Structure formats: C-alpha cells, structure tokens
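Q: How do we represent a protein-ligand complex in a form that can be generated token by token?
A: Start from the inputs.
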Amino acid sequence: MLICVNGESLICVITVNHNLPIIEVKNLKKNYGGFQALKGIDFCVDEGKVVALVGPNGAGKTTTLKILSGFLRPSEGSAKILGKDPWSSPELKKEVAFILDKPNFPPHVRVREFLKEAALMVGKNDGKALDYIKLLGLDQYADRAFAKLSAGNMQKFAIALALLREPKLVVADEPTSNLDPEARAQFYDLVLGAKRKGTTFFISSHVLTELEKVADDIIIMSDGQIRAKAPLNELASSMSSSSFRITTDKPDALAELLGGTVLEGKVVVDEHKADLSAIDGAAKKVGARIVSVDRVGSSLDEIFKKLVDEK
Ligand code: ATP
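Then emit the structure tokens for the protein with adenosine-5'-triphosphate bound:
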C-alpha cells in the first residue's frame, strides 16, 4: 500500500489487490453543454467493501452515480461495473441495485403488495418482503398507496426493494437524505448485515461523519475532481494534524515562545511546532507553571472541510 501526497495535497492510496474491482472508473469526464461536471476522475471499489463518495453540493456525485447506473453516458473515459459498461449492459441490473434520488413508483399501488410481488419476481419468498417492511419501520404504512407516502417512507421503500434482491452491489445516491435518525441507524444496520453476506456498497453523501460507522473506504470529491481516496482510518490518521492545548499561568509568554496562540485562556500549539519536551523547556524558560497538556486531533468533518477547500 502506498500513500502519496502530491503538490496539490491530494492523497491517493494504491492498494495491491489481485481481485478485479467491482467498480472501475478511469479518467471519467462528463460535460453538460459547455460545463464540465466531471473533470477526469479515477477510482476503484473492491468487492465486499462499503465505499462512500462524499462531497458538497454540485461536486459531481449524482453525475458519477448516474453514469454507473447507465442513465448517462460519459463524455470521455470509462466507468465499468463487473468489467461491463452500464450504458450498454442492461443485464447488470440483475446483479446491481440502484437507490437513486427521487424514487418513482406507480402511485396507486400499495407498499406491501408491490414488495411481495417484487420478492416473488426475484425468487425470494414474500416473508422476506415483510421482514424488510418491519426492519425499516414501514409496518404502519404497508397498506398505503405510493402516492400517499411521505418522502422518507418512499426512500425506506426504495431501500427495502434494493436489499430484498440480495444484489452483488448496491449503488445508492444519498439514500438517507430524507430519513430520520432512527431510520438512518436502521439503514446502516441493514448495510452492515448485507455486507456480512457479501454485498458491496457504493454510497454517496454530503456528510462524511454520517458514513463513519459503515464505510471502509472514502472518496472525497469536489468541483468534479477527486480530492482524496483512502481507507477511512488511514485518511483520518494521515490528515489529522493534532495540537496541544496547554493550561498554564503564563499563556501569553508561553504561546509567544512556542509559536502558538492563546484560545480561551489556553495555549494552542500545533504538534508539528512543539513536542512535550519543547513545551517543558519553554515553560522553564519563561517561568510558567504547566497545569495540564491535552492533545486534540482533527475531527473527520475538519478533514473533509480542509480537503474540499483545497482547490
Ligand atoms: P448534490 O449533492 O447537490 O446533489 P452532486 O455532487 O450530486 O450535488 P451533480 O448533481 O452531479 O452534483 O452536479 C454536478 C454539477 O453538474 C453541478 O454544478 C450541477 O449544477 C451540474 N449539472 C448536473 N446536471 C446537469 C444538467 N443536466 N445540465 C447542466 N448541468 C448539470
């Protein structure tokens, strides 16, 4: 495994893997008229992983997912699922489930009815459909027509429909955007359960911390480009610049000597500027009494913001 940080502070992690990736995207570009929404992105998703595609509004997440689901054609480059081009391989829909934004179902059909039929069509018994209705808390809405479902319950239904088939890969565009916290937790439990049975997930979101509990790998994009791709734990450790928060009776003098700042009465100094012995030495020099020294790391949200802001 190689981690390299280039001149633009991008991080790339190259994993030596002898299995074929389930998703392989190479130099993918997409133009909408004169506007370039994807500027040549590359990434892979390995089988059995939960991979999160995270980025702010307009980053290009939906465009990427629409290309993977065969709704859009690339302007240049390629996007492949199981080695096939989704645009010209409708048979992929047997192995891949897509949860895209604004799910559309026949307005007069009822939830339970549709899900039971769907279960039978994919060779599952209708008890399985009822299990998903329960697991996602849809019981009380099971006899409602789609036209009368709230956006969140419609989204739960789309999730149930996707997972019911036990597909090889689930590609989901912000699947939790309309869900309440309890339903989000239920969704992530279902993701982990399906992952244990071998399903791979490629999930987009605005919020990195949202996927923290389930994602193995993170791809961060903004402005049509990939800013970072790495296993979640490596991203956190390689990007987090910790700092020391020092409680002392002479904060100004100590901060000046260490090149730090004073925040809410405490000296804040980046760990790259001083270690514990340097703090001790500086305190002796200015005659300061050290009460406590705490080390504080960057949060995932701070890492995300830092990467997205670097253009
Ligand atoms: P969000 O989180 O807001 O859904 P996103 O990361 O999914 O954003 P995309 O929907 O892929 O971003 O859009 C990427 C860029 O392409 C945006 O600037 C968007 O305005 C533009 N775009 C998307 N679809 C079209 C279209 N059909 N025609 C023109 N521009 C488009």
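The chain has two domains: 2-95+167-238, 241-309. Residues 136 and 186 are 6 Å apart (CA to CA).
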